[in-house]
Amino acid sequence: MFENINELNRQEWLKKTLASLPAGSRVLDAGAGELQNRLHCAHLEYVSQDFCQYEGVVGGLDEGIQKASWDTSRIDLVCDITAIPAPDASFDAILCSEVLEHVPEPTHALDEFARLLKPGGVMILTAPFASSVHMAPYHFCSGFSKYWYEHHLALRGFEVNELIPNGDWYALLRQEITRLGGLERQRGSWTWPLAYCYALLGMLYFKLRHKKRAEDLACFGWQCVATKTRNNFCTSVGNSDDLFQEKIKS
What are phi and psi for residue 91, nearest 5 degrees? Predict the structure, then answer.
């Protein structure tokens, strides 16, 4: 019964967005994992990066949602996402999809992307606003709102070209209701048949309800395309968040 609306919506958007990049552009897939998005980059010069430390159930904790296995053997650049061994301005585009929640200091990754992008380069970002814990212990945050993108990208010399919600509060609720029965069964609760009945009632409700959206309350996450409009002023001075705090104090 469970339908991963979040994943389906996001992959459709990524397919369209990556297809719009000019042929031959050099793109970095930061936090590429198992190279899920490589198939959308056949027209591009594709370079993948990942820290390659997550090992799935074998190497992970028995907490949250874990992958049964995780193969990063085809990654090009094995390194920390905040210290990628590539020259300044060496990419036309950077893709970072559903990765920032796994970075302890996600704004530091933005600083690195700003360094690596050419002027006029494009950054494609997605990150969860609402997310269950997954890939523990490498899950540090969620709640990436549209205001987070607007604030931190402007601070680093980016212009936001597209910022759209993936789903809304109702889509999020619908997905989690359909997940309930399987979760209860997996965790050994005798109430799992009732959970499936509850999910069926929920699906009926969502079929009948008025279609007014509520992305101002919550969504799966925001999908962002931004262009580097100027050189990142913090590359030689220090972290841009520190500079922002200094600006506030002065």
Answer: -130, 145
Strand, coil or helix: 97: strand
Q: How far, rounded to the nearest angstrom, does the alpha carbon of residue 246 sit from its chain's CA centroid?
A: 29
Q: For 137-151, how does the pLDDT look when each residue is reduced to its tens digit (9 = 90+)? A: 999 999 999 999 999
Give me the amino acid identity at 230.
Answer: R
Between the alpha carbon of residue 43 and those of residues 30, 209, 212, 213, the distances in Å are: 18, 42, 38, 35
CA distance 101 to 140: 6
pLDDT tens per residue, range 109-130: 999 999 999 999 999 999 999 9
Please state, in angstroms and rounded to a whole number, the distance separating the CA atoms of residues 37 and 214.
Answer: 29
Residues 6+ apart with CB under 8 A from 53: 138
* CA gap 197, 190 in Å, rounded: 13
CB contact set of 47 (below 8 Å; sequence gap of 6+): 26, 27, 28, 29, 76, 77, 86, 91
Cα(11)–Cα(151) distance, rounded to whole angstroms?
25
10, 49, 103, 104, 119 from 28: Cα distances, Å: 18, 7, 17, 20, 15
CA distance 242 to 188: 48
Rounded (5°) CA angle 173-165-195: 10
Could you tell me if 1 and 199 are in contact, meaning their C-beta atoms sit under 8 angstroms apart?
yes
Q: How far apart are the first and last CA of the chain?
A: 55
Is the model's pTM score more than 0.85? Answer: yes
